[in-house]
Amino acid sequence: MSEKVNYRPDIDGLRALAVVPVVLFHLGVAGFAGGFLGVDVFFVISGYLIGGLVHRELLAGDFSIIRFYERRARRILPAIVVVTAATLIAGWMLLYPWDFVIMARSSLATMLVSSNVYFWKFFDYFAPSAELQPLLHTWSLSVEEQFYLVFPLTMALVVRWRPKMVTPFVAAAAALSLAAAMVVAVDDPNSVFYLIPFRAWELALGVLVAVSGFAPSSRRRSEIYATIGAVLVLAPIPTAFVPGDVPGLVPLLPCLGTAMLLAAGTSHETRVSGILTWPFMRFIGLISYSLYLWHWPLIAFARVVVGSTELPATWQIAIGALSFALAAASWRWVEQPFRNRGWLSRPAVFSLSVVSIAGLSLLSGAVLLNDGFRGRFPQSEYAGVGMTDEDLDEEAAWKACSDRTPSEGLCTHGTDRSKPGVLLWGDSHAGTAWAGLKAASEVAGRRAILAIHPACLPSLGLYQVDSGTRKRCLGVGPDLVSFLESDSADVETVILHARWAMYFRHGTEDAGLDRMPMAAPKPDGESDGSVDAVASGLDSLVARLKSIPVEVILVGDVPEIGFSARQAALRRYRFGDPLPEAPMLSDVRRQAAIADSVLGATAHRRSATWLDLAPGLCKPTCPVENDGGLLYGNHHHLTAHGSRSLLTPVFSHLLSDRSLVTPP
Predict the structure, then answer these.
(1) Residues 6 or more apart from 49 whose CB is under 8 A from it?
(2) Three-state SS for 405?
(3) Fewest Cβ atoms nearer than 10 Å: which of 179, 226, 300, 304?
(4) d(C-alpha 401, C-alpha 613), whole Å
């Protein structure tokens, strides 16, 4: 990122200190829960090196915007183009069309320097679904390049206007960005994670260290700064802790630590810089960019092959070793040649950049236009993995209904108003149940309505803890209750169906008996976020619905099978591996005990109906496939085939014969 005239070997060591925790965190190695903060260290380093270089050139009257972007192209493009191309090839071989389309969207966004925006819209970085996205890590590259689309010209204007105001201007910009991150993180941490307005302060902090010229005045002070800086960088890595848990401040400690290390090494060598300049540390720093690019696609595809987001230790070791090998090769034969101005001229750099970006964009577009090239696999295989055209159409249909309000128009199936309608209300599990309800409503001659809000517990007055948009769920209950109270609703029956156990933090893949519930009556999700408080929110909703009055049916969740069914089915087709053992009824009972207890008690107290699905589905083993089709898409969402097979009979009885219903 910098010219050799200002080369500092300790910065290569600092890069190693940043990239290794990131790799180990992504591999799932214990003790590196905060390893993702290494990306923040990279941001500060980048701001320091590039900001300092631009500032020096501007003051010397030697800055060229063309030369600036030439350096960026030489530094960034070759490796990312090679990795993206390799990822598309691997996706062709390993991913089914639906997943291949998702990956192609991310590769197109990567080429257009907008993958952070793409992943912000569709993926929580820390959610299990994100762990299978091979280009998820490119969000940070987009953040950095977006910063450098604006920074050089802005800096040039400030230098021309008031050269002495550069440091105050950068400091003010950094403070404004950090303040915005702290404010927005309260309700929308996902935006703070991905988007440039809330990340700019990290790059600006590095710029500030460079342009201010700040450096400790003595060796002793340099030692103190370096020691404190190293502690601040390393301390959050095991747990990503933040004193007081102030929203938006998780990256602050490593960023400040990085700034202190950069400043300390400006004028004096220290004990810490001595460690950072060890040859092994410097080598890892030199290959850190390629290492960052290669490791994540390898991990994501390994998870597809293994059929689990948790990789065995042998896989972790193998992927780590392969990542280092590919990174070293990429640095030697991809990065280095393109930085050699004697080997590649400026026009050639820009020409190759345009051709490579356009070529990969066209390839990604071809995947999108051809729906992931479904002809790569036989049609019989699509049924075996729950990805027939019908499955995908039904999945797209309920997703298109997500987060609709009554004023926008809820999704409706059937137009016959001779019989009162039935409303299915819930989260994404209600979405997957929609196919089963539609089939049942046709037989019963009832109009079916869908109110689906992913990750929102059907309730009144609850925020969602750990949700990227916590307040989004708060208005759902009042809006739907008002709709049901109106004359236009014509709804007699409300079915509440959700992934109940998740909201009590029990029975999910990351559950623990003592975990905080996922929903709470306060936006901070603290003190009152107990099981009783969450149960009260559900109880309030049922009581309000009964007063309308409408019939209320609480339908228990489908059993969670403990493994991704589609990934397991893929392994069966690719490698002949059998599907993992399905859970027993006793396992399901234990996982959902708290949620089932709350649902049963609520139904009894409010004279509603409570239907426990597990005994009817698990006899005693819970089915994963039938009639040549997969019942589950992942470890808890049903396919359309699964919805019709498992839930249509249930809904048919609920809409006609109530004898099936289990009394509370």
Answers:
(1) 1, 2, 6, 11, 206, 210
(2) coil
(3) 179
(4) 25
Which parts of 375-439 are beta strand (E)?
411-413, 421-426
> Per the structure block, which two tokens stand in for 125?
């970085």
Contacts of residue 35, Cβ cutoff 8 Å, sequence gap at least 6: 21, 22, 23, 24, 25, 26, 237
How far apart, in whole angstroms, are the C-alpha atoms of residue 8 and residue 543?
67
Burial of 354 from C-beta contacts in 10 A (0-12 / 13-18 / 19+):
exposed
Residue 31 in contact with residue 238, Cβ under 8 Å? yes
CA trace torsion 620, 622, 628, 632 (10° rounding): 170
pLDDT at 281: 96
Kindly report the number of other CB atoms within 10 A of residue 379's CB atom.
11
Report whether 567 contacts 308 (CB < 8 A): yes
Question: How far, rounded to the nearest angstrom, does the alpha carbon of residue 551 sit from its chain's CA centroid?
Answer: 38
> Burial, 236: exposed, middle or buried (Cβ in 10 Å; 0-12, 13-18, 19+)?
buried
* pLDDT above 80: residue 411: yes
Beta carbons within 8 Å of 190's beta carbon, 6+ residues apart: 120, 124, 125, 468, 469
The b-or-e profile of 161-178 (16+ CB within 10 A means b, else e) is eeeeebbebbbebbeebb
To the nearest 10°, report the CA torsion of 238, 591, 655, 435. Answer: 40
Per the CB < 8 A criterion, the answer to whether 307 and 568 are in contact is yes
Angle (CA) 66-70-74 rounded to 5° is 175
The two three-digit tokens of residue 618, written as one number: 């698990």
Tokens 């893949």: give the residue: 509
Q: What is the DSSP letter of 90?
A: H
Considering only residues 199 and 574, tell me which one the structure prediction assigns the higher pLDDT: 199
pTM: 0.82
For the stretch 341-369, pLDDT in tens is: 888 899 999 999 999 999 999 999 999 99
Q: By three-state DSSP, how is residue 220 classified?
A: helix
Residue corresponding to tokens 């090196």: 49
Residues 6+ apart with CB under 8 A from 118: 105, 106, 109
Tokens encoding 8: 């500092």
- Burial class from Cβ neighbours inside 10 Å (0-12, 13-18, 19+) for residue 90 reads middle
